[in-house]
């Protein structure tokens, strides 16, 4: 099952999503003959880039959070 495409995390890929959906709406022959393949590749690479960006942001948040926790534990150890 595919994830939902139109989310706040994928806003940068919105134009490509619309074009891809319009291509699929043209009918079965367009899809089966590979007329939408270029748009599919563009969409996949855009979504991959967005996911990578989100992963980096989350990784940075976790690193900051861990640093704060380590600092608090250090303070607790020093005061004990």
Automatic annotation (TrEMBL):
Keyword Amino-acid biosynthesis carried by entry: no
InterPro entries: Cyt_c_biogenesis_Cmc1-like (IPR013892)
Keywords: Chaperone, Disulfide bond, Membrane, Mitochondrion, Mitochondrion inner membrane
Chaperone listed as a keyword: yes
Subcellular location: Mitochondrion inner membrane
Transmembrane segments: none
One annotated Gene Ontology cellular component of this protein: mitochondrial inner membrane
Broad class of the protein's primary localization: mitochondrion
Function text: Required for mitochondrial cytochrome c oxidase (COX) assembly and respiration.
PANTHER family recorded: COX ASSEMBLY MITOCHONDRIAL PROTEIN, COX ASSEMBLY MITOCHONDRIAL PROTEIN 2 HOMOLOG
Family: Belongs to the CMC family.
Name of the protein in question: COX assembly mitochondrial protein
Originating species: Pseudoneurospora amorphoporcata
């Amino acid at each position: 099952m595919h994830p939902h495409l139109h989310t706040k995390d994928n806003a940068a890929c919105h134009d490509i999503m619309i074009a891809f959906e319009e291509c699929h709406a043209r009918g079965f022959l367009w899809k089966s003959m590979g007329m939408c393949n270029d748009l599919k590749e563009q969409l996949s690479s855009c979504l991959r880039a967005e996911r990578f960006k989100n992963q980096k942001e989350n990784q940075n948040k976790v690193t900051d959070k861990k640093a704060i926790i380590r600092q608090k534990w250090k303070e607790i150890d020093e005061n004990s």
